[in-house]
Design goal:
Blueprint (H helix, E strand, L loop, with lengths): L1 H32 L4 H34 L7 H12 L15
Amino acid sequence: MVSRARLKAVMTGLALYAIAAAIIAYFGVNAYTGKYGLNARVELDQEIATLTAELSRLKAERVTADKRVALLRSSSVDPDMLDERARYQLDYVDKRDLVQMIGPN
């Protein structure tokens, strides 16, 4: 009877240590490989770099578009810009224009 009670006490202690070790291992693995873990930080840094580059490109594109729109404002219409946009939209070609057709290669 005494040996069975001692065996139960030892097994209970071992089970508690095993459960505690499993919990610590679970949180340790998640701290390293989880969504916000150490490995994810590298991926997030790469994504930040990619998005920053795209943001710079889009800002430059926006500045270019703003300059073109400023040329078409009613307060100061650039005649060349107006002519270019009208010809593009209407598919109009003046008889004095030189048009070069580019076929498929």
